[in-house]
Amino acid sequence: MNAAGPPIAGLVPQDGALVERYLEYVRVEKRLAARTVELYALDLQKLRDFAAQVPVALTAVRNPHIRRWVALMHSNGRSGRGIALILSGWRGFYTWLGRQHRVPSNPVQDVRSPKSPKPLPKALGVDDAVQFANFHSADNPWLEARDAAMVELLYGSGLRVGELVGLDLVASKEARGWVDIPSAMAHVLGKGSKVRDVPVGSMALVALQKWQTLRGDCPEQAALFIGRNGTRLTPQSVWQRLRSRSLQAGLATPVHPHMLRHSFASHMLQSSSDLRAVQELLGHANISTTQVYTRLDFQHLARAYDAAHPRAKAKKGSE
């Protein structure tokens, strides 16, 4: 198998032989899958191409070479994760070369890929969130009341889906959480078994009272939100219901529970800018976790600036 590909001008001939031996090693002795071996071959071909441009033999590659090539890949648009995978392949190759006494040290050992920016959490715009919360289905009154109450709690109080399905109908020593309607507070058990109190809005209270009226008596089941079979809803069921409901409501993006939590946090920050308060409401242990929502607000803030600040726009007639 000529996994290393056709010869390229400038490549050191013995490098190809070393690569072939290594690929044979991972295929036969390590018994890696054929697709994995193919990916290793592609990564090592890239290494040979870089080395040929210097030029330098693979056994003479040193740490500065690797760092320079990582920077080059990054500047050419390769993601941090993609570079990390390539480095992993190179690191394994040089570990093997070290065992063969071909290199004095592994030039890839302390090289790390650039950090990829964390994707922003997806949040609905205010109009879409309100449209979703106001949606009512005429199909099944029982399901409609339940699903509407779930949407109001997820968006209105920023609950996690696990916290939502963990709510019980009434408070008890065994309850993981419950909603105290008279005080308009939800008591939930969050991550790390931390209990927190979250305000429940008036629209959510109305939806909850309607749901509790239609829910019916089910003494053997303490859960606030149950399925048609009388058992506690699972997070997966809530995901499915919200996705279906969002499509019925005419939203362009399928909605999932955490999107409503993200929307709650983003819209709270747009209105109040109180990062500490939002941290408490979400139950984040570190404020750095909450700060991601400040990035969501950038476009909103930019629009507010353009609309309100006297120096945001040039006066008519000015050049």
Describe this structure in words.
- It is a single chain.
- With 319 residues, the protein is mainly alpha-helical.
- The protein is built from 14 helices and three strands.
- The chain has helices at residues 13-28, 34-53, 63-75, 80-99, 126-134, 141-157, 161-165, 202-215, 235-248, 257-272, 275-282, 287-290, 292-296, 298-308, and strands at 178-180, 185-189, 195-199.
- It has a three-stranded antiparallel sheet with strand order 1-2-3.
- Helix 1 runs antiparallel to helix 2 (34-53), helix 6 (141-157) runs antiparallel to helix 8 (202-215) and helix 6 crosses helix 10.
- It is elongated and about 80 Å long.
- Residues 1-10 and 314-319 have low confidence and may be disordered.
Average per-residue pLDDT, rounded, comes to 84
Write the element-wise H/E pattern from the N-terminal end onward: HHHHHHHEEEHHHHHHH
Number of strands: 3
For the largest beta-sheet, the strand count, sense and barrel status come to: 3 strands, antiparallel
* Quaternary structure type: single chain
List the keywords.
319 residues; mainly alpha; 54% helix; disordered N terminus; disordered C terminus
